[in-house]
Amino acid sequence: MQTGSDVTGRGADPQPTTTAPADRSTEFVAVEGGGDTTSAEALLVAAYIVMWALLLGFVLLGWRKQQRIEQRVVQLEKSLDKAERTAKSA
User: N or C: which end of the chain has fewer CB within 10 A?
Assistant: First the structure.
């Protein structure tokens, strides 16, 4: 077993080098050979489709709930009419 060195046998890790801000590159350098990416247009279209689908779903859920409430109101009105008729006849 080796002492004083890492697994590769090169010795201790060298000290990280620090660079002054002036030594760093200040211009844009494009990376060549990047991975496959999705175009901005495709992402925008996908985002609009998702938003319209969510809006449509929200409207449909509200419409269904409104239909159930209207049915319940009709049932309650019928029950009230029936109760009023039995109260008058008694």
Answer: N
